[in-house]
Amino acid sequence: MILMQILRQTRMEALEKARAMGPDAVLALLEKKGLEGRGGAAFSTARKWRGCRDAPSDERFVVCNADEGEPGTFKDKFIIRHNAETMIEGMLIAAYVVGAKRCFIYLRGEYECLRPRLQQQIDDVLARARMDGVAVEIVRGAGAYVCGEATALLQSIQGFRGTAMYKPPNPTTCGLWGKPTVINNVETLACAAQAVLFDDWDPSLRLFSLSGNIKNPGVYEFPLGVKMSTIIDVARPARKLKAMSFGCFGGIMPVDEGMAVTPEAICIERCQHGTYSIILIDEGNNVVDVACSIAKFYAYESCGKCTPCREGTIRILNLLKKIRDGKGVKKDLQVLCELATHVQETALCGLGQTCGNHVLTSIQHFPEDYDYCLKKNRENIGEGKGKK
Amino acid sequence: MMEKGKKGGRLLMNILHEAQEKHGYISEHMLKQISIDQGIPIARLYGVVKFYTMFHTEPQGRYVIEFCGSPSCVLNDGTRLEKFLEQELKAKVGATTKDGMFTLYKTSCIGCCDEAPAMLVNGEPHTRLTVEKLTALLQKLQAAQGGKKPQKK
After folding, report:
1. ipTM of the prediction
2. Domain A205-282 has CATH 3.30.390.10
3. Is the pLDDT of residue B52 over 50?
4. A142, A159, A257, B8: least buried by Cβ within 10 Å?
5. Could you tell me the pLDDT band of residue B148, with boundaries at 50, 70 and 90?
6. Does A112 touch chain B (CB under 8 A)?
7. So where are chain A's domains?
8. A136 to chain B, minimum CA–CA distance in Å?
9. Do the Cβ atoms of B51 and A162 come within 8 Å?
10. Quick one: average pLDDT of B6-15?
11. pLDDT for the residue numbered B36
12. Does domain A287-382 have CATH number 2.30.30.30?
């Protein structure tokens, strides 16, 4: 028995089966199996591919988004390391279905060490696939988180600054060089090949990246709806857990052992599941510190194109730092909430639209941690250290 | 936009990476050459290079250290180790040591959260860092100075 579904290899059989079935049958099959994008948005893969296939054009492209920059996420690295062939095969199936001749893998700069082997595997798979005129190229990223966003990623491949663009038009109909382009995550493409080939492929399994204050961090596979207690059992925290953060953008919520991990359950707490990367935080930490490090990340990674995000992320960081350092007052919390909501509502792309999540959720769920920091200030003033 | 080999040609990101590999940074001279070869105005090229944190327009230390500042690393003692590195190298984040050996950067997540705290040295990940490990690594790299050069000059 294979322990993880994602590691099952398709050994070119999926591509062969897809070719025998024809593009329309492949789309119908993926639709029936319910394959959804694994990059966070959970959009139907079959619909995306069909949209690209049906868009009128003489040329189409397939892009594999391997720019996994979300802090706490390392599942794509895991797949590239252990089952890249299946992912490449998934790409070739996508290329076959939509009729693309040129495919790109946008590999983030931080994963440079994976590139030589990946290149070898691409050459190897292409040689075995015998697909006329189809090329797969690695595009080397250079350390910009925002390039994980579809439109920014396309800009980067075309040799521009990786800034987000207005949508519509969607990349599916107007992407690279204005041509229809399919952009899929590493995990999605590997799953696509597996879904085509295996009858017993299970669409409910997701990869979870667990990290933080735990003894067993790593990539695990669980079905949706898994009990939080099961996750904690394998994670083996040293101390009692207090909070969990879904990457940076998903928000911070209390650890509830009885919770079933589904998008809906997470949504109720005003968090987002994203790619199921969970950073577990134990009771030895103050949530304000974590929120601060997340805010730092956003201020650093904002591409600077739209004002709400460029300015807002820095203001959020400064306010959080002020509170953390015991210089905050009660009113700062209110300003922080207003600011975060404002940035979320007016920012251009996913980065800005989610950069307030950690602020809002942490203030909502952990008011005592903020109170603790605010109290420090009151004590300071009381002792006459801060003259006001 | 008038750009030669726009669609069929090589990708600018890869060209820039290869240029940087030669000396560890992209000099003005190199940018001019790329500008001519690719038919891209140098101002636009400069804008691209400056956007991506991994491209450098100034000479870098022989070893570029990128220390991860993501929450997982911070939760696992990352901040203390970063301070230790700064002390040990006598260089602040963003600066190069006087002997030109190390340039220290702080970076967003490098995808090693399961082996936190972690850092990249010239792109190679070093994980589960401790004070002892860092000390040993710095010593090893310094000792290798006389030997083969990894990237620069």
Report:
1. 0.91
2. no
3. yes
4. B8
5. very low
6. yes
7. 5-197, 205-282, 287-382
8. 13
9. yes
10. 82
11. 95
12. no
Give the per-residue pLDDT at B3. 44
Upper half-sphere CA count for residue A374 (Cβ side, 13 Å): 13
Q: Cβ B11–A74 below 8 Å, yes or no?
A: no
A-chain residues within 8 Å CB-CB of B43? none
Phi (first) and psi of residue B121, to 5 degrees:
-120, 115
Name the pTM for this structure. Answer: 0.93
Give the strand pairing for A277-282 and A205-212: parallel
Amino acid, res. A93: I
Contact B93, B86 (CB under 8 A): yes
Q: Which of residues 315-344 of A touch B (CB under 8 A)?
A: none
* A117 near B CB under 8 A: no
pLDDT at B150: 46
- The CATH superfamily assigned to B63-146 is Glutaredoxin (3.40.30.10)
Q: Mention every residue, 6+ apart, whose C-beta is less than 8 A from residue A152.
A: A144, A146, A162, A163, A164, A165, A303, A349
What is the per-residue pLDDT across B58-69, written as a single tens digit (0 to 9) for each?
999 999 999 999
Given pLDDT bands bounded at 50, 70 and 90, which one contains residue B153? very low
| Distance, CA of B67 to CA of A367 (rounded, Å) | 31
Domain positions in chain B are 12-51, 63-146
Regions of chain A short of the pLDDT cut 50: 385-388
